[in-house]
Design goal:
single chain, four-stranded antiparallel β-sheet, two-stranded antiparallel ribbon, 8 strands, binds zinc ion, 2 helices, alpha+beta
């Protein structure tokens, strides 16, 4: 299966958190984000079939949409040089222009 490229900003933001020796996966829009297996997971509670697990592969159309939303939550594009910077950066890493 084709792997989806995950940028450094996303990797840092969405890698599992380690708490008391337990790795806890991050969540985005109700989905558990698993960078290792490149998959989103969510438990769906349906009236007809009850509880089931929904899987969305990163390289599926829906997965790519979620990844793009995740990306723009942590990254911001410089108006001047189009470089991508962390959301919380105050100036562009490439051209040093102020970001807002
Ligand atoms: Zn990204
Ligand atoms: Zn720039």
């Amino acid at each position: 299966m084709e792997e989806v490229y995950i940028c450094e900003l996303c990797q840092l933001a969405y890698e599992p958190e380690e708490m008391n020796g337990v790795r806890k996966l991050k969540e985005f829009k109700g989905y558990t984000v698993d960078l290792r297996v490149q998959q989103f997971r969510k438990i769906i509670y349906g009236k007809t079939f009850g509880e089931r697990l929904e899987f969305i592969q990163f390289n599926s159309p829906k997965g790519k949409t979620l990844l793009a939303q995740m990306h723009w939550k942590v990254a911001v594009e410089c108006d001047n040089c189009n470089a991508e910077n962390p959301r919380d950066a105050t100036e562009c890493k490439d051209c040093r222009r102020r970001l807002n």
